[in-house]
Design brief:
single chain, alpha/beta, Rossmann fold, Glutathione S-transferase Yfyf (Class Pi), Chain A, domain 2, 2 domains, six-stranded mixed sheet
Amino acid sequence: MWIKHLQLNHFRNYATAEIDLHPVLNIFVGDNAQGKTNLLEAMYILAVSKSYRTSREGELIRHSQPSTKVYGRIQRNADVDLAVIVSHDSPKRLFVNHKATTSNRFVGVLNVVLFTPDSLQLIKGSPGERRRLLDILICQVDAIYRSNLLKYQRVVRQRNQLLKNAGADRSALKQLPAWDGQLADLASRIMFRRQAVVKSLSMQAAAVHARLTGGREDLSIAYVPFSGPSLDTGEETLEGFHNIMLEQLRKERFLEIQRGYTLVGPHRDDLAFSIDGKDAKTYGSQGQQRTAVLAYKLAEMELMRSETGEYPVVLLDDVMSELDRARRKFLVEILNTKAQTIITTTHLGSFTEDILANASIFRIEAGTIAERGNGDVFAPR
């Protein structure tokens, strides 16, 4: 799949912008604060219906304008038109082939892998951030998971309200067993899927990491459920996760009532990254963490292809300067043979002449986009 055409209206610092994209490699070059990241943000929104930079969607709208629209034409088996409209005075609207739709039906039409300097938070950040990124990945390729996750989040909110009300009305606790059954059913499905995905990611990332390090280091990624250490027996079943949930709910019943919220479930899961058996967050150097995240992102790409039959669009926001020459070369060579890649950069010095010769190159300046023509040179400033 690839993005053929992108159109922005009153998005961030863009009044209007319209571009046709290359099916393989697109490089957007410009100084900082000119709109490079905004462009990738718009493409990301076409995939997951929301921004990776803000939860306040009004920030997406250009100053003094009432609304913004992001439109893209996607090439899959056939062309698909996607659009997102965000307004100050009405709910966000999503469209597939010009027909209004729900988020659950919108997400997954376009798949993306995003790699930014902030991607190091995958290792350095909180468990919540790792869960969020894992959920975004799975939701892009699995509609059933998306539905289960939304239902689970709703049940947790309602169960929390019940636990909170129980402080004043103990009779409300009679409803807990019914909520526990729903919680355990949905939680077990989420945990079962997460476990399978993380196993696949770990195998793919380990292979990429071995190539990046010349076989000198071993990377492993483990799923760490809320109930304890990583599960690695290969014998986990839906029923097993369901039983874990019910047992943990029983153990934590008094404490949950005391605190007034749900302490048990996959909303407390985590991922563990290890290099040569040591925790990468605690013992990994900055370089080791960066290499592990790069391997993970390429593993995401392979997982999406295995799930959907197509490679996702890869969005690289100012990361070439974060990688050394060997890793830049490795990354671009892999992507050039597999996926449409959108790269932002402040200069073209990170790329070889043969790479530049086969790429579409655009200059971004103050919210305007110009494509390099024959003979044009976009030199570092």
